[in-house]
């Protein structure tokens, strides 16, 4: 296997980083490790609108946070994991979190070693009679007292050597893949005495028996690395990311602002046929529904590049605008929401687009949100709040850093902004 000597780890991390532009197929978000002109090249691709720090520790944390978000939204339930191979690169296959776990353990503890001999109750192994007399209960027989089990050493010298050897291999592999992130010095390739399959079989056995959380997590990460390296067609190269970050953008918006069951707000249709069975059509599905202080906000996540270009061609079109109005009208007229409407519920609409709040003119306001205007239609009076679709830019880094779940402050700030701008624009046709 080649090493990553071609990667100049002396360069500042931000020099490995760039933003996707969403222009001419430049859509990939994630990390690429490629062999270019005989040398390994590392590049980190942040989403459109993400501010990349030039401070070493800050950009490292930004890269790690990007990894976590990509990993989070690539689970089995995610739409990302269902994309075809030409739509999605090797995000599913590359276990980035496993490599990070192994590196993190190494940086804090060095190579994994069994530092003491643990003893367990068993029938075979290196017996410690002193511990057996103290720990085990004998059984009286005609021939005298016998011990049904002994205190045997859990780990042999071979075990100790082998587990450290496997860990050294995994640390080296982690260095090859992600060592540049931590500016690790050049490592000497460790001697491997067994086949990867043997490593895996042995590690699988001790992982199943391990009870300590830290060790169990480390062993599982090592197993994932062994699985990847043994099946990778090009082990020196990898991609971790997606060409369709718009799905991640939608999920981020939903997780941070979606605090109600949005399925309750889907407009549904049916065919009532003269002959045959009734056919229920697939419902229109808004991206996110947010509720705050009794009001409903229908949010549509648009991963468009208007925040970079300020070009009106990069804004949602008539189809998207009319669809949002239909969502709002459904909630405003459907009988199942009558009680809420009687209690003063208002319905608002908004598009949420990405931007970098550190760039002009957005940095004039100290907020992750920037109001750009509203969209209206000619077929409505535009008197109702939901008939005016507010355009809001949301800072990409803010969303990624707050992707742990519903954020009450973010919900409050966004709802207040939408209401305020909707009131300001009322009657300004």
General description of the model:
It is built from twelve helices and 15 strands. It has helices at 56-72, 96-109, 129-135, 157-178, 196-209, 213-231, 245-257, 306-309, 318-333, 338-342, 396-401, 408-425, and strands at residues 17-19, 29-36, 39-46, 119-122, 139-141, 144-146, 150-153, 238-242, 270-271, 279-280, 288-292, 295-301, 347-355, 369-375, 389-395. α2 packs across α4, α2 (96-109) crosses α6 and α5 runs antiparallel to α6 (213-231). The model is unreliable at 1-6 and 85-92 (pLDDT under 50).
Key terms for this structure?
five-stranded mixed sheet; 12 helices; 3 domains; 429 residues; alpha+beta; 15 strands
Strand order of the largest sheet: 11-12-13-15-14
Low-confidence sequence ranges: 1-6, 85-92
Average pLDDT reading:
85
Distance between the termini: 67 Å
Q: Radius of gyration from the CA trace?
A: 29 Å
Major sheet description: 5 strands, mixed
Strand content: 15-25%
The global form is elongated
| Helical residue percent band | 25-40%
Structural class: alpha+beta
Sketch the topology as an H/E string, one letter per element.
Answer: EEEHHEHEEEHHHEHEEEEHHHEEEHH
- The number of E-state strands comes to 15
* Domain module count: 3
Number of helices: 12
